[in-house]
Amino acid sequence: MFYSEKVMDHFRNPRNVGEIADADGIGEVGNAKCGDIMRMYIKVKDNVITDVKFMTFGCGSAIATSSMATELVKGKTLDEALTLTNQAVVEALDGLPPHKIHCSVLAEEAIKAAIKDYYDKNQIAYDASQYCSGSCCGCAHRHNKD
Ligand code: FES
């Protein structure tokens, strides 16, 4: 058995799929390892993520991890959402096969890119070191409008 029940559940019934037309922040990242792409949309009110949706051209593990990641950040403050790691998402899914761990990086980075986009649009200062420069995990993320 390669995939946990939770992975299969989120793959078959992904939560929060779609787009938000009037999103406050949009993050798009690509996975250098496989070429898959993910876009994350957030609505923000009083520093809290009130809604989040994602679209991905990615594999089943990317879909499952994004789905779980959206559930984990919904209702959280931006600072809380920024601390979400791909490991935490993988743990929440009861694990992924080792060769699919890289897929979970997309979800974490897409959320971070969406928050960064929100900060940029609203000219809110942020700590740039919280964001991946593309060298931390070999994933060459394509951040929004960099
Ligand atoms: Fe590309 Fe999973 S194989 S994200």
Report what the structure shows.
This protein is of the alpha+beta class and 146 residues long. It has a single domain, classed as Sufe protein. Chain: A (Alpha-Beta Complex). The protein is 38% helix and 17% strand. It has five helices and three strands. α1 crosses α2, α2 packs across α4 and α2 crosses α5. The longest helix has 21 residues. The relative contact order is 0.21. The protein binds FE2/S2 (inorganic) cluster (FES). The site of FE2/S2 (inorganic) cluster has 9 residues, from α2 and α5.
Write the layout of secondary structure elements.
Layout (H helix, E strand, L loop, with lengths): L4 H8 L12 E6 L6 E9 L2 E10 L2 H14 L4 H5 L3 H7 L8 H21 L25
Antiparallel strand pairs: 1-2, 2-3
Helix pairs in contact: 1-2, 2-4, 2-5, 4-5
The site of FE2/S2 (inorganic) cluster (FES) has 9 residues, from α2 and α5.
